[in-house]
C-alpha cells in the first residue's frame, strides 16, 4: 500500500513532525548539559522513542480505516483492561511515583528499562471508539431526535467515565481532565441538540464551581469529599492564591525564571543557567524559552496552531466521505490542544500544575509512542483523502 500510494505522501504533516522532533531533541539536549541531568542520556532515549513511534506510524499506513472502525471496540476495552490491571497491580510491578500509580515500571521490585503508562495509550483507544460510536450513531439516525441525541450522549458519557473511573484511582487528575475535554469537544461536534449541550454545560460548570469552592474554602475536607491527594489540593490553592501559607511553587518559580531569562532570542543550546526539575518532561517549554527565547517559544506555539488548523481542515474535508475518520481527526486535535494549553498554561501560571506532558515535545516513552500512533492515524486519514480526491478528479 505504501509503495502503491507513495505519491500521496503528506509532506506538510511530515515537515511538521520533523520540526517537532528537532525542537524536542534540541531542548532535551540543552537540558542534558545541566550538571544535575548529566549522564542520563535523555536525548538518546528520546530519539529511540521517536524512532519506535515512527515505526508504529508506518505500520498504521497498512491499516484499512473500515477494519479499524470495526476493531475500535476491542482496542478500547483492551486499553481499559490495562488500566484495570494497573489498578490491581502491587507496588512490586507498579510503584507509585510522586503519589501517582500510573506506570508499569518494575518486575519483582527491579526497574524496567521502559516504564509503560497505560493511560497514554488508552487515550488513543478512547478516541477511536468514541469516533466509531458517534459515526455509527449518526449513520443509523440520519434524522436526529431528542431521544436519539440523549442515547448518543449517554453512550459518550459511558465511554468516557469507564477509563476515568480507574485513572482517578491512580491520582492522575490531569489525564482525567484530558478525557473529559476530548469528550466535550466530540459532544459539541456530534450534532447533539444545543439545548442538551447547554444543560450539560451548566451542570458541568456548576459541579466544577462547587468543587473549586470546596477546595478553596474547606481544603482539609477536599480529600474526603473530592478524593484528591494533598499535593493536588496544594497545587490548586497555590495557583488560586500565591500568598497561601503552604505555598510550594518552587518548580513553577524556577520554570518561569528560566522562560523569562531567555529574553528575545534565547541563550543558545547548552547554555542553560536555571535548573528546573523535570525540565526534560513536563517543563520542557521553559527550557525551549530559555534556549530559544521569546521568538523560539512563539514559533513553537505557532507550529502547534498550524498542526491544529491542518487537523481541523482535514476532519472537515473527510466528514462526508467517512465520519469515523473525521472524528479521529477531531479527537486527536482535541488531545493535542488540551495538552498544549494545559502544559504551557501551567508554565506561565495561568493554569495549575499537573503532570500533563507537552505532546510531541516532552520526554517520555509512553507519551511519545501513543502520540505517534495518533499522528499515524491522522496521517492515514490524510492519505485516504488524497486518494479519494485523485479518484474523483480523474
Please characterize this protein's 3D structure.
- This protein is mainly alpha-helical.
- The chain has one domain (about 5-390).
- The protein is about 70% helix and about 5% strand.
- It contains 13 helices and two strands, in the order αααββαααααααααα.
- It has a two-stranded antiparallel ribbon with strand order 1-2.
- The longest helix is centred in the C-terminal third of the chain and has 35 residues, at about 285-320.
- The radius of gyration is 21 Å and the shape is globular.
- It starts with 10 loop residues before the first helix and ends with a helix.
Write a short abstract of this structure:
By secondary structure, the chain is an all-alpha fold. The chain has one domain (6-392).
Question: Which features characterize this protein?
Answer:
394 residues, two-stranded antiparallel ribbon, 2 strands, 69% helix
The number of E-state strands comes to: 2
Low-confidence stretches: none
Helix content: 55-70%
Number of helices: 13
| Percentage of residues in strands | under 5%
Radius of gyration: 21 Å
Q: What pattern of helices and strands is seen along the backbone?
A: HHHEEHHHHHHHHHH
Organism: Cerasibacillus quisquiliarum
Transmembrane segments: 12-31, 43-63, 75-94, 114-134, 146-167, 173-189, 196-216, 283-312, 324-344, 356-378
Protein name: Rod shape-determining protein RodA
Subcellular location: Membrane
